[in-house]
From TrEMBL:
The keyword Isomerase does not apply. It catalyses: a ribonucleoside 5'-phosphate + H2O = a ribonucleoside + phosphate. This is 5'-nucleotidase. It comes from Dendroctonus ponderosae (Mountain pine beetle). It is found in: Cytoplasm. GO terms for biological process: nucleotide metabolic process. It is an enzyme of class 3 (hydrolase). Keywords: Cytoplasm, Hydrolase, Magnesium, Metal-binding, Nucleotide metabolism, Nucleotide-binding. Belongs to the pyrimidine 5'-nucleotidase family.
Amino acid sequence: MKNPIEEIGILHRSNVHIKNKDKLNEILNNIARGGLRKLQVVSDFDKTITKQHEDGIPHLSSFAMFSRIRSAAEDETYQATVKKLRQKYYPIELDPHIPVKDKIKHMEDWWNLSEKAISGLMVTQQDIDDVCLECKPSLRNGCKEFFRDLNDSNVPALVFSAGCGDIVAAVLKHAGVYLPNVKVISNFLKFNEDGTIMGFKDKIIHVFNKNEYAVKNTDFYGEVADRENAIVLGDSLGDAAMTQGMEHCQNALKIGFLYEQIEDSLPQYLDTFDIVLVDDQTMDVPRAIFDYIRDAAR
Ligand SMILES: [Mg+2]
């Protein structure tokens, strides 16, 4: 039995936390055995593909970026509503003392009320592109290279986001990582003929329903049906469940990025993710694991 943790030097950095090394070694061995042809990557977007902070300043989420679009920024009722919602619900999302099952109802309320608030605004694709270029959120260091390597190796990458899909897609596009292997599942805006937002196109995805969300009903599902191994990336506890709706997925290696309330949240993150990266604003670990899988096949 190989010991991949020993071989992947970066896993010995002091901010890398692993609760169950035997289990992680087993997953790594299974995934390496399948090689790149059996691999897919499933990643959250906000604070996972983008950095959690830059020099201590937290990054804007896709919805926060949306709020900066002129028509939204100038709408005082909209601004007051989203601010109030965030003040109420964001602490609940983060609170390590509230069980996830209790958080779900609150997250549903938050997203439903956000959908209501967003409806009626008029936004163009140009507005969306402009706000992305203006805010220019930085992707994790090494993110571009990671996506390039995945595309070069024909490994599908699913970006699975509870954020605003139109913004997510635009950020990926402008950063040059919306490559042919990338698919985005998220809350995309629904417009009427004159460009007014009517809500979201499909069933709402919030931070804690990514497990039940029917990835199954998308064409992506067919593309990855023979990919039984996944690297799963996220910064929220709910992200660890992103492959639960994929029946064929046998080995999911879950990597969690933790930045806020580190001390209080670490135990839960360690129970949920196979690898927890504390205040790591890079893609170094996912890339090292990808390299390990690729090289193991040679
Ligand atoms: Mg996130």
